[in-house]
Amino acid sequence: MKRRDFLSAGFVGTLGVVSVLSQSQCGGGATTPDDPNAQRTFTSTSNSGHTHSITIQRTEIQNQPAAGITRQTSSSGGHTHTFTMTQAELQTVNGGGSVGITTSVSDLHDHAFTITKWF
To answer: How far is residue 38's CA from residue 33's CA, in Å, rounded to a whole number?
Structure first.
């Protein structure tokens, strides 16, 4: 095999490998990126020098549970608060409205959240 033939074969082989690798990275891969709109984290107003956050799933807004949703906020200053949204409030948000939610009192204070549709 002449040097020129050897180099040509090597170059063509390299192009084939690069082509296969490129195609394997484009579409059709086994994994898909997470849906950035699947959930949203909201931050409360500041009270007593700190805030809390709460994460709501898009499915909770779209398919409002009859009992609404209740969960604990993030911990800040060594405590959490209870956050509750009724089914009617979830429906309001799903319809494009804005809802103000006040948490339970903990450490002699509460926090307010404004929940809006993000998707």
So the answer is: 11
b/e 43-61 (16+ beta carbons within 10 angstroms → b): ebeeeeeebbebebebebb
Question: Tens digit of pLDDT for each residue in 38-85?
Answer: 999 999 999 999 999 999 999 999 999 999 999 999 999 999 999 999
Instruction: Characterise 42 by phi-psi region: left (phi > 0), alpha (psi -120 to 50), beta (else).
Output: beta
> Strands 82-85 and 99-102: what pairing?
unpaired
Q: Name 57's bridge partners.
A: 39
Distance CA 31, CA 48 (A): 44
